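Go through this chain for my students:
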Amino acid sequence: MNERLEAPATAGKIMLVGIGPGSVDHMTQRARAAIAEADVVIGYVTYIKLVADLIEGKEIIRKSMTEELDRAVSALAAARAGKKVALISSGDAGVYGMAGPTYEVLFQAGWTPDDAVQVEIVPGASALNSCAALVGAPLTHDFCAISLSDLLTPWPTIARRLDAVALADFVVALYNPKSGRRTRQIVEAQRLFLRHRRPDTPVAIVKSAYRRRENIVFTTLDAMADADIGMLSTVLIGNSNTFIRHGVMVTPRGYANKYDMDDGGSTRDGERAGRSLSTGLLGWLDLLRDEHAAGTDIETLAARHRLPADYIRATLAEPWEPAQPAAEETEA
């Protein structure tokens, strides 16, 4: 991998192509065009099968699940030989895909953006986008993705991330939740989430989104580990406001904090359309300083607002001006 390859007079190109969930209908036009113009198509064997109708007559390099670096090395070698290479990933190449490993190989080989070998990343719909579309609108508010694969990441690192996002009330997409050999990780994830979330928190499990064996299961946090989950599954765990109704999973955007949805969407007392919430940053700072001035100590404030005491202390030490009316904002 350290060997530098001499580039021909006309070097080739590496196109890191996100093919989306697997259905050609959900590939971008640029993804299809990139595969069409490629001389060589490289990918995991399952992904190669998903684009079989698009790669007739091309040089195909198939690799196994654990040969990501080999795929990148093969792509660089082909590009150095003057070929256009489509290195494909399911979903998006930059989300648990081949973009990262490829850049690692490129940099180790001495590549720079001025190199004769060009690199293009062709984005695609990641699993969290595809699975969310099938179950409703679970990602309408803040969310994150965590992979449960400990093949390359230490479990304590994964566990700390799970615990942090569970406490912070993110909607969470779990990638690589379970395999034939990795069966306990999803149980440990459930255990960590139950420390901070209600047992009846909505969960959607989507397997093989937009593929032939697509399967969708709605369940709850306390029951999710008992569901049929595998490497082709993505697990979507709702936040404290997520609900499932009529077979649709929805995470509210937060309009009910400002508007009375039962009264035609009228603005609640103390709130103004187009302005930050009364409990937004400036309003919260006013409240925090009033509470502290009234004698509430920092440790109590930290516990009340579920924030670190050193953050509360530093915030109170900042110069402060009471919140003032601001110009109208357009952001919801």
About this structure: Residues 1-5 have pLDDT under 50 and may be disordered. The longest helix spans residues 68-80. The CA atoms of residues 143 and 171 lie 4 Å apart. The first strand starts at residue 13 and ends at 18.
